[in-house]
Fold this protein.
Amino acid sequence: LGVIIDESKISSQTTVADLKALMTQADKAEDILLPLWQFSWWGRIVHKAAVRLILLPFHKYLIQIKFPQKNVPQIPPGSIVIFNHPGILDEICGLRLLYSQGRTDFITNAASYLWLPKVTLIGKVNEIFACSIPLYESGKKFLKVMQIDSDMMDKGYNLLFAPQGTTQRQDKEDPFKTGIGYIVKELDRPVTIIRIKNYREIWPAPKEDIKYAKLKDLLPKKRGTAILVVSQPLYKDWSKMSYLEITNLLEEKYQSL
């Protein structure tokens, strides 16, 4: 069950312990849709088979990946991996990097509207191929998602997250949203940044929101090569930084790649 929390009691100084205390004292709310079958023993089998037999071969056929760095930094297990969002299935570039380093357990948070009745199939596909759970914006639901992320990362899962929040629909990139600062501060994990280049020319996002897009607008334009630049893992005492400071630091590091 979810809970109702007085959001006026939450500030930039609120800690995870404070949030847990508020949740303990809060009233129970309605059930929250958070499918977790993909993390069960049989769900893991279905997921890994789908990734290895369908997703990775399909993506590799369309898009080759080139690393300009001589030595690509290793991504720590149980850490956060953030990447820009230039097109459709761009997160698979990060997934391919993880798999190449022997990291096959990961979790993603996708927009909750992908589980609405009209587009619920997209949500289900995300569950199978990307181990996605819905990312809600309201306090009580968001905290539940955070707890699941934290629990899975304790088991060695990597969290893949796009801090720009939406796919790039113009030449100029969108800025990082401060939500990434909140997530990093509260999860308190190392962060690796991946900058994906040349992807938008191959498989761009549709001009309108994906839930309104036609099938033809979701298809790749051509085959090609994407370039991935990977940062060294960032180990910081995130608890001593504000959400905005974290966001600005991550964006500055990203721009330098």
